[in-house]
């Protein structure tokens, strides 16, 4: 690959026509315009910052695991592999913000030190292929997704989505009056052919008009939830080519990116890294790499989008938690550094889930009849998408596939193993007035002949026991 | 006051017709419905929780000021008035959540210990007068306000608001296609007569129809931003009576509640505490009492509203930061207790701002010609709303009041004192395409003959200097 200097890279294309009605109406907060005067002898009675003397917090620290080998910050050699991360009281070396600054209002971009860290990380990991990309701190990918939707879509619009999707994404989309257009998936995620067909043929159905042709796709390219599918490089290139051809914005929700099980050939390029136009909004989260309770992530997008995204942040959460950001900044910037963080991802997080994935797969192979339940080996993430071969059921055709799946789900419950019903990931509209909480009486979508298993949480003996129970349940269910 | 037992209190009225199109379409997350199975020997491969062994954080602690006198938790007697708050690694006494639990996904209500603390606090401070009120943790009042709007209002709707308002509120309202209906204010906040008139006469203007009659009022009853006004008890009663008569929901945004300067007769009752119908959504924030960087607050509302509010939380921020909540829970629940927290508010936070308020007022009285600039003494909050008597300006009537105000603002800048231009709090629509960041060239709204001063942040010598400079600036500006 020829490395280009940043200045040789193109600027993002103009996507101003993609901005939603809501976002177009957002204005820079006028309060912030007063900051320019804060120089020289100016005394401000302008801003509304609370007085730091009223903050009861005088120190904040966390004991954290050290980044694997190579970290120089290991301070206490007796306590091996852990170090104390203390948010500085005063902005001493200027590397990270002081506690007082972290606890104050600070603006919607997030804390500078942490944001710069994330920016450098994106730079080295994803090497964006256009000049004017920017990073903004967020409260995690769920919130970022809402903001990306508000940025781009109006009530009545359509959005392209993988046929089986993260339920929260559907729960976000539907109340906004946006319609999901499900695109078939295979073991490598969204199918380019089907995507192209949908776009080429838009207009062939009565509700489809040139005006409402989808302009946005929501994709989870790595370790997709629930299918576990990871798009290969060619698949990614194909999708980006379609995006260019049909002028799509892509929301790349990629919380499982660092949970890639094989990186012998390097990390899989992200869609962001294949984007030369600035059409990808990439969402990264610390939820799966450090801890969900951080409620911190970051989003990468072209400068124009970032501005609106920031305005939206400033009238909602204002900024991610200062406690979270301060601890993360001190750990990542002050202690681990870029390399330490990458090693932590590579050698700890990734390996933990790799081992768990391998183990659950071996258990499933051992205990579950693969004629009745099969799966594609996941190459990233936390999930195995179990395909149930209902066509092998003795009563297949006599009752609906949904009925058979419901029986199997209940058989699992009876055997003390809980799996997530496939219909919960369906992108079809759910039946009106259905009580979705009655999971033992309810299954909709005859195509949802799947159960989602995760290897992320249960311990190894539990996983083995669960696979055994699933084996028993499926045998029983298919016997009747 | 006759104290009623909770069971004698009425249930909230049915406000289901107030739910917006967006909120009505929200469903309980089906993923959460699986939790009921987690008992006995059930093994779950269902949920998608990351494995805690991948969390690098093994301890979290903060040194905090002790609550004033009476706290028993003072551990280190040498370091006076501070104590170390450590989030427990394991859920030992069950009083607060463990670090691992705090760092995990936990659901949109917020951490139970902290939420219970806030609930008890609301109970004792505000004594809600109906049975089925509930508390939900939030990411602060800015975010809560967005969620309250999304709960109640559709594009095209109208909302009642104080004539001078918190700019972020306007920035939230306008992009949603909601129109603010400004109601005149006096030194005690929103005027009941004007409010009643607006509602009684709704329909008298062409755009006003019975269908779009305002159903929601957004009010900041204590230390209002920017006017500093605090509604007296009778005023509060009057407003609640109008709300009942016209069936209004009230969003009570009350971040300055605990910054009341005189509590000799007790704390001023909140609108929540006067509400017997469940029509008040009360927003509390830790931003002004502990620190804005917490990004934690809590909202109190009837059970039905709380459900939708929670669903919305779960598809946006998911939950407030676990770092913030864990430190707050350990400090408030584990150390300070209800009484300690109340003492901290009463004896520290309140007193700090009381002293600051008194000091700035004395400086203004000393240095600024009260014929040219007058103000109502604030009885709560952070702000003094300076009324500029432009009618006394020699060129009054020859140029617009806006032009005179802009001159004064620039005269202030020249004297090195920065005050917030009154127009930034205007609830009139801002001129299209105006560059609001050019504050030295721009002033709109001839009625905005105000400057907002805050006594919250500058130190005392700075405040004195600023008042002096303002005195000079106003004399100069009114001389020309
Ligand atoms: C595809 C996808 N996006 C987003 C999330 C949530 O991420 P965050 O915790 O950053 O909001 C999840 C986790 O459940 C997910 O599977
Ligand atoms: C009236 C009002 N509401 C809300 C806020 C912001 O509160 P929070 O930090 O809880 O979002 C402020 C602070 O500037 C305010 O003045």
UniProtKB/TrEMBL annotation, chains A, B:
Cross-referenced Gene3D superfamilies: Type I PLP-dependent aspartate aminotransferase-like (Major domain)
Cofactor: pyridoxal 5'-phosphate
GO biological process entries: aromatic amino acid family catabolic process; lysine biosynthetic process via aminoadipic acid; tyrosine biosynthetic process
GO molecular function, one term: pyridoxal phosphate binding
UniProt cross-references to Pfam families, sorted A to Z: Aminotran_1_2
Source superkingdom: Eukaryota
Tagged with keyword Transferase: yes
Chain ranges of the Aminotransferase class I/classII large domain: 104-466
InterPro entries: Aminotransferase_I/II_large, Class-I_PLP-dep_aminotransf, PyrdxlP-dep_Trfase, PyrdxlP-dep_Trfase_major
Keywords annotated in UniProt: Aminotransferase, Pyridoxal phosphate, Transferase
Family: Belongs to the class-I pyridoxal-phosphate-dependent aminotransferase family.
UniProt protein name: Aminotransferase class I/classII large domain-containing protein
């Amino acid at each position: 690959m020829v490395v280009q200097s940043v200045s040789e890279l193109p600027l993002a294309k103009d996507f101003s026509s993609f901005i939603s009605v809501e976002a177009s109406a957002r204005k820079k907060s006028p309060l912030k315009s007063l900051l320019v005067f804060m120089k020289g002898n100016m005394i401000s009675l302008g801003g509304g910052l609370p007085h730091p003397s009223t903050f009861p917090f005088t120190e904040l620290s966390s004991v954290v695991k050290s980044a694997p080998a190579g970290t120089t910050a290991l301070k206490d050699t007796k306590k091996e592999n852990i170090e104390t991360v203390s948010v500085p009281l005063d902005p001493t070396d200027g590397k990270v913000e002081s506690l007082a600054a972290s606890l104050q209002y600070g603006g919607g971009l997030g804390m500078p030190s942490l944001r710069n860290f994330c920016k450098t990380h994106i730079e080295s990991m994803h090497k964006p292929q256009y000049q004017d990309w920017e990073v903004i701190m967020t409260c995690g990918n769920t919130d970022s997704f809402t903001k990306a939707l508000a940025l781009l879509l109006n009530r009545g619009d359509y959005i392209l989505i993988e046929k089986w999707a993260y339920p929260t994404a559907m729960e976000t989309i539907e109340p906004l009056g946006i319609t999901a257009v499900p695109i078939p998936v295979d073991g490598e995620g969204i199918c380019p052919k089907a995507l192209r067909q949908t776009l080429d043929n838009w207009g062939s159905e009565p509700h489809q008009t040139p005006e409402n042709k989808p302009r946005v796709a929501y994709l989870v390219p790595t370790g997709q939830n629930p299918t576990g599918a990871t798009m290969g490089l060619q698949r990614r290139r194909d999708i980006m080519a379609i995006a260019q051809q049909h002028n799509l914005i892509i929301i790349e929700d990629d919380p499982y990116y660092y949970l890639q099980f094989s990186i012998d050939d390097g990390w899989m390029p992200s869609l962001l890294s294949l984007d030369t136009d600035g059409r990808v909004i990439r969402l990264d989260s610390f939820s799966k790499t450090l801890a969900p309770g951080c409620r911190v992530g970051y989003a990468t997008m072209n400068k124009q989008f970032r501005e609106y995204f920031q305005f939206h942040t400033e009238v909602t959460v204002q900024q991610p938690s200062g406690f979270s950001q301060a601890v993360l900044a001190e750990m990542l910037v002050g202690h681990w550094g870029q390399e330490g963080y990458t090693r932590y991802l590579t050698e700890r997080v990734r390996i933990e889930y790799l081992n768990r994935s391998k183990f659950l797969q071996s258990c499933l192979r051992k205990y579950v009849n693969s004629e009745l339940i099969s799966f594609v080996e996941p190459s990233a993430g936390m999930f195995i998408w179990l395909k149930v071969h209902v066509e092998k059921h003795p009563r297949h055709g006599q009752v609906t596939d949904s009925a058979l799946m419901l029986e199997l789900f209940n058989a699992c419950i009876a055997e003390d193993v809980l799996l997530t019903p496939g219909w919960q990931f369906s992108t079809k509209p759910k039946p009106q007035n259905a009580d979705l909480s009655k999971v033992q009486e309810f299954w909709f979508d005859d195509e949802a002949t799947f159960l989602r298993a995760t290897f992320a949480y249960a311990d190894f003996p539990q996983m083995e026991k669960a696979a055994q129970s699933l084996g028993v349940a499926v045998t029983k269910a298919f016997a009747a």
